[in-house]
Amino acid sequence: MCPASNQIAVASGESSEFSKREPDRIQAELTALSNVLGRKWNLVIIERLLANGPLGFSGLLEDIDGISSKVLSESLDDLEASGLVDREIVNERPIRVEYSLTQQGAALEWIIEKVREGSLTVTAHSEK
Length: 128
Known about the structure:
Layout: H1 3-11, H2 17-37, H3 42-52, E1 55-56, H4 57-63, H5 69-81, E2 85-92, E3 95-101, H6 103-106, H7 109-117
Antiparallel strand pairs: 1-3, 2-3
InterPro entries: HTH_HxlR, WH-like_DNA-bd_sf, WH_DNA-bd_sf
Organism: Natrinema salsiterrestre
GO molecular function, one term: DNA binding
């Protein structure tokens, strides 16, 4: 099916390869995003980098209450592998590394803003 007839099929409500795959793509992207952002410290790290700009490992460790160096290291590796954080060596001796948000990471600022506004407050409802 050519692209034009695919658009017509979608517009007319007919089933098409495109319309069947689109929900699958969206679900895959949402799942991937929630897997990264759903990890305990990842949104906190993104928020700190948004608020402060590039930070070294020790700067992040001091700035985030309750996170261990092991968990911070794992979280930064995860965020880097996901394309949300860049890791740059800024000094070779002694080695100094700085972390900053990529364009993709910075694009998540709206989520942080909604949390700051209280718009995304999630409360637990217990069954009575």
